[in-house]
User: Fold these one by one.
Assistant:
Number 1:
Amino acid sequence: MSYMALYRKWRPDEFEEVKGQEHVVTTLKNQIIHDRIGHAYLFCGTRGTGKTTVAKLFAKAVNCEHPLEDGSPCNECAICKSISSGNSLDVIEMDAASNNGVDNIRDIRENVQYSPTVGKFKVYIIDEAHMLSGGAFNALLKTLEEPPSYVIFILATTESHKIPITIRSRCQKYDFRRIGLDVIYERLMELLQREEIQAEEKAIRYVAKVADGSMRDALSLLDQCISYYLGQTLTYEKVLEVLGAVDVEIFSDLMRQVVKGNTTQALSIVDDVIWQGRELSQFVTDFTWYMRNLLLIKSSDVLSDQLDLSADNLDSMKQIADEVEMPALMRYIRVFSELSTQIRYATQKRVTLELAVIKLTTPQMEVDTESILERLRVLESKIEEGAFAFSEEQLLALSAKQGEGVQAPSQSNEQEIDREAMLRAALTPAQMEDMKEIVESVKNIQRDPELCNRIGVGTMDMLRYGSVNVGHDHQSLVFSFTNDIRSQMAYDQFQKEEHRLALQDLIGELTGKQVEIRCQLKDSLEEKDAESVDLMHNSKMAMPWRVEE
């Protein structure tokens, strides 16, 4: 006997074996039990979710000579066996992708006049129904609306929006969902036991993940892996080799180089991946998901617990998540999400991928807001590392050249001023305590991911581009920003009433105190008089504070 592919060999023979579509199966079984069978059904969903399988099971169930109490077919009678083998004259399957003309539908209209040969119903299963031509749909319309009592139409499609509304309105519509990763994994493990094949759980879980909600894809991929390593235990490394996939460690190395802006090393990693024969479209998809997981880890510890990652991989990704900022990570995901569409149709996949990697490491190639913020981040990190250092003479020369005529900064004057004492002199003790409690609540909001999400992580992060000041009434907060690019964007963000009111309400919720927040633009955040108290560099105060006059 010739070999049969796993997805054909283990096609469900009863409703209980259909995984992940309980909402459809339960409804159809109830219709059979209570004799409420419709005349037209529309099964919609992505590939490999069980549309055709359920259609055949339904055809068996309605024609079965000895159906079970729950509505399932017995699979023992002559009718069930003939339908399973594809020899039944009462169940007609038609592929609309290759039989989509008016003449094909006319043949159906002529044949529905004849009663079933053996069973109670004549069932027409039209696969890829959206491929029918406009004329074919019109020819089917009347028959679909008023078929003989013994005829059932089942239309299966992956693109329900292409089905004319006149057809859809005459059918009972069932949406087949993507099958969950855990459901696919359990089904694969069950079938491997039946096949008496040894495999690592990690390997099968990866196959289930790559299948992307399609049980048929999962079985086909598993079949491919088993065939390559026939008679051997299927390991995670072997699955990666067969499917052309990349291990998480390579993604981690690539992300570290991208964060550092090291284009040469990042391209070297891509070159290694290409020479290993990895499939580039799959590489792009997997790396996008890797960055998505980083985003969830960075957003909340609660979300990180829901990721399907080993403890070692999770710890490694948490370290990388700490190194990359949220706006930069969102830009990376955007670039690779666009790439996943482009690379599918690209004739030079390698060039397309390398260009995207260069975009990640050199944000100056783009001029959107996210890229500008990323460029500023890189400059800040280089300054902090001492990559740019100027002597006082150089600073004076640069200032003179620009006509500013400023003096070199002096650290001694800054250190002589007791900023906190000046703030205490400006406020009453009660006002001082109130303001300390309010600023502590702002810091708590920035530290707590759940609280921060209520305002917006990106919005709260922009607060570091300005300073938080005490208003002239000694009861309000004033957010001050300069006119540079990032501060201007932060000012625009906090000028939005929805953000300011949300922050005011949250502060009130945490402290029990009502506070008004206002925003202003200034030429400089530095203060030149004693009445405006600047605590930006005060080690005792974690936030920059001033009294605004």
Note: Residues 280-299 form the longest helix (20 residues).
Number 2:
Amino acid sequence: MTLSKLSLRNAKRQAADYLVYFVTIIMAAALLYAFNGLVFSGEIKKLYSMMSSLPMVIVLASIVVVCIFGWLVSYAANFMLTRRSRELGTYILIGLDNRQVARLFFLENLAVGGCALGLGLILGNLLFQALRAVILALFEMPYGFSLAFSLPAAGLTLVYFLLIYLRALYKSRKRIQKMKIYDLIYFDRQNEEAMIKTGRSRRRIFALSIVLGAVGTFLLMIGSLPLGIVGAGCVIFFLYGFFLTFASGVPAFFEKRPARKYRGQNLLVFRTLTAKLGTMGILMATISLLFTATLAVLGTGLVFRGIFDGRAAEHSCFDLYIGAGAKGKPVDQEYLDYIERNIPVEQSLQYEIRLNETDGVRQYLDDYGIEYFYDYRQDPVIRYSDYAALRAIAGYPAAGMEPGQYLIHCVKYLSGPLENFEQPVTVGGRTLVCGGVYTEHLIQRYAADNGEGYILVVPDEAAGGCDLLHHAYAAKTVQPLGEEQVDDLFGISDRVAERERKDEDDYDFDDYDTVNASAYEERTAAYMTALTVLPLYYLALALTMTAATILTIQQLSESRHYRRQFDLLEKLGMDAREMAKALRTQFAIYYAMPAVPPLLIGVPFILNLAKQPEPEIMVGLSSPGAIVAISLGVFFLVYVVYIAVAYISLKKNVLPET
């Protein structure tokens, strides 16, 4: 049999033995091709002028993903070399030299990678269609299925795969060429040595790692880059210290508590588990670190999505909005002239935002513990007639107000406290009682908006006695504004600011005009989501797949050992139900251990991160609790698939047939 035929036969057998690894490599190729398809898609670039930067971001993300998958392939190649070292040593005994054996191992793994690449390109074409549909949906564009193979995307994927595989297999080939027959035959008996040997050192390192884990998590939540780097270092020390001391600490724990050792199935479960963990403490710590990074990346992506969607929703209630930043001055005539010449308008309104002489609502929010808005202290007010016109322009239903009443319009997160506000307010010498709270989006974030967080809607005659804050303009246009029109309006804003700076020495950024266009806000939110969130999810999926695959390879590789163990237990009298329970317990602990520390670190980190943006935009599915739940759901959705596949396979191959 030639080396080529032998390599092909071994490649087929290797794919069967390591099916989870083979499927993961297929998924890796599919992911790389799908995102490379976005890099070379002319359709995606035409959606928005700023989308031209998306290919660079995806290439940078792909480089990180290639490094992650490169570690997976390198680990798998080394693991396969360890598992098959006796077979390879036997080839040398029967007459092959080291170079031929190294070439054999290289070719068979390259064949597995080539098959995975081919299947991955087919799957990647379908996955690209899913990504294309997502991006088109972000820009509210129609989607039509069109299966087309991208040669540039396939070529770049091939380059990535060559980098991944050739580097890993080159290292294995060089190692085989240098190894002697004895080294190959006994290579599978080499285990990870215990780095912390004495019980006292073990206990100290374990306690120190727990403390550093708590300190590191706290530092990550502060928000300072230098402290965040220190916190990340503490977390890394915690993970490696924990796993290097845990496996060796379990026997010591049971030695001091012999009664627990023989209770139920503890001896079987923990003896098998510590034997496993004792040889892979560093690996388990690395996997746990990858899981921690996965949760952090997922949470960060969801926070970004919440910020982009929340800000766009608040700013896109009007087709066009202009808030005059200069206090007391009307909307500049240059805007109005441009709109009249270039933008067909169905409805429009020029109106005023005023400040009440009292601050009853502001003081109530301060006393309630909400201290977010501080650009002005008095309560902002708007005439009821202007408010009714704004609701019509935005497409909201009418809001009635009885004589002697006022309304509150606020961002959603303030609705709870303000619904309990029952105090009358005095506006323009009139005492008014609250007639209702409304929470639709109304552009309420900055000083040149319709109030910061809230505004009081009062009778027209009452508002006339209040001090003028600023003028504003809102319009419903015949068609959404295009990029060029928005750029022209921004240019006018710059010119207005320049004129104001020449007229006033104390002009600052807060006096800058606010210009919002719903089409622009929605396009920008879609662009930012595509630019940041999709690559983060891409990275998170690669991290999870890599870590879960390595765990599963390790677990399934012990099938023969477990089979012999349970055959012996059956002969000693253990029934099938007890054996199944013992296997489930071992399996659950094995997969839970690297996932528990990331939960303890990731959940507080994500909760804290989700509370940093403006509170009015982090509501609904973007609220901190929802972001944590979604992050955990996505993570465990992928993780549970690997767990289920591994458990079904292990149960089938390990437990005696009944």
Note: The radius of gyration is 32 Å.
Number 3:
Amino acid sequence: MDINKTLAKEFGLRQEQVDNTVALIDDDKTIPFIARYRKELTGSLDDQILRELYDRLVYLRNLEKRKEEVSSAITEQEKMTPEIEAAISAATTLVEVEDIYRPFKPKRRTRASIARENGLEPLAVLILAQEDSTAPEKEAEAFINEEKNVPDVQTALQGAMDIIAEDISDDADIRKKLRTLAGEKGELVSKAADPEAESVYMNYYEYSEPIPKVANHRVLALDRGEKENFLKVSVNLDEVAATDIILGKYIKHNNACGELVRAAAEDGYKRLIFPSIEREIRSEMTANAAEESIKVFASNLRQLLLQPPLKNSVILGLDPGYRTGCKVAVIDATGKVLDTNVIYCTPGPKTNIEASKRVIKGLIQKHGVTTISIGNGTASRETEQFTAELLKEIPQKVSYMVVSEAGASVYSASKLAAEEFPEYDVSLRSAVSIARRLQDPLAELVKIEPKAIGVGQYQHDMPQARMNDALSGVVEDCVNSVGVDLNTASHSLLSYISGINASVAKNIVAYREENGRFTDRKELLKVPKLGKKAFEQCAGFLRVRDGKNPLDNTAVHPESYAAASSLLSECGFTLADVSNGGAAGITEKADSLGIANISESLGIGVPTLTDIIGELKKPGRDLRDELPPPLLRSGDIMEVKDLKPGMELVGTVRNIIDFGVFVDIGVHEDGLVHISQICNRYIKHPLEAVKVGEVVKVRVLDVDVKRSRISLTMRLDDEAEKSAPKPKKKHEKREPKGFDPSRIRNSSFKIKTK
């Protein structure tokens, strides 16, 4: 297999793009670096496509390696044939390779292997040949041998049939056809392990669905129900259709031998093939569902990390609690902790509303607080109510926002938090984290293990290594796309920068603390263990504000400084103009001179030239500034019981899952917008139409006060949707009646507690 050609075909790319990208990957260039600074070579492929290509490259290389291993193993057994060699070469998946290897793979003792040890393989060959002249019982007499535990004809024939059944089971072609049949025509079936037991899986106690139509989230729900011993899940396959595939290949004549082969084939299917195929189908469905779930998680995480920071604000963080009170932390515009306290504004043994109000009012007055950030965990509702009432009593204009505190307790108890805030206890560190999440989500959330951030579904059921790789890649892409301030970034943030590992990140911080702030990027080369190769990878993503060279505060890579200076000169600007924003008109000037002409004269590609122009126009720009700001509230909160069908509200998308989105509308419980209610056009997945953190307008469709469930619609221009949604058409797939995946224990559809 020519892997690069395969990649080019699968991804619809030019061969040159793939060849260059693979060469860069093999040269240990990171994905963020390749995406940003090698656009001419890759054809401007973005980081997400590059990661998909990388994952596929790894798979195909592993496939080729496994082919070589299997080929060598078969050759060592002196059983290699041109047909087997061709089959191995043509295999496109690891499953196909393993099917080919199955007959040659060392096996544990089986009925067939025992029969072979007893010398019955020649009898199996005779029967399988199905010659009319062969009388099975008579031929079997020659194989009777008391010493080999073959006392009679029936035992000999049974042993021969066991061998035939196993040989059929090991037939790669048969297995491939049956796997295809199961995948296209099989049904996934679920029954209750105990019909009397109550559980959140009751809607799956009598469930079946064609395998091709089973949604990924249902696969994961069934897997979890089975794991928790509430469900028995199986695959149903038409046995007649399946055995017909086997018989069509193995039955040659309708004679005595043919009947024995038929019986062996049916036994092999029931005892060996189908259980194996069922496991493979289930495993494949789970793997596919997990991969799609990881993609959704990764997309949600990307959108969450890139939420606009609340700049130039003094923020008061509130970590709600009952018995231990509500922890308070105030941070300045740079994230520095100014003050901490504990108040008792929620029901508990020490409740004192008036004293709590005096503390918060004093902090607002003393530090000029402009925004309050409230964690959405335990006691969040009461804390929000307290905050809303307090804001009505003060003259200052202060807003608040409820933020997800998923992972805050994990971070506050971590070694990293202890190093960062050795003077504070765990609860106060959590309050600081909640405040910083509103101030700069990216800088704060990188301190937390990605899977603990809580935007996705069933993350605890995912293959952990694969999920960690995917989510770490998202964090890396986000950090590098935004860039970080070299003189203020924590070592946890720096460790995600291209070319910098945790050790080098700590060395950068240590160098900064010992020698003072960096004045230019070149000074990085003085940091221990940060060599020229690492500098090439990281320099463009690190910003030096108010440094010696204005270009150090841009995403222009040092390797392009000469080109940037020449560009400024050609367009009539200077480096000083970059510092004071005087180069804002460089785009118009470059267009008048002709981008292609400038590209040729400077000897750089058009994509790189375009990026440089954008950076010189807005030095130090933050791509997050172009996004809508977070939705802040100032008072007048409601409860679920206050909601009525038809009410129109504004909310923030908190989580996106396969069948809909959860929207925070300020009533503590997030409302669900089913995928059918997101927009008027057909979409396969909510991610096609909405993003985590997006501020959206919704209308209330239905409210279940007892179960605190809110049904919403975003189809505000559709008058028909003001009432409850109409039943689905017959050909559309419904969720099992009453099914509410958000109720599944330990799922991450909604995280309201730490």
Note: The first strand starts at residue 187 and ends at 192.
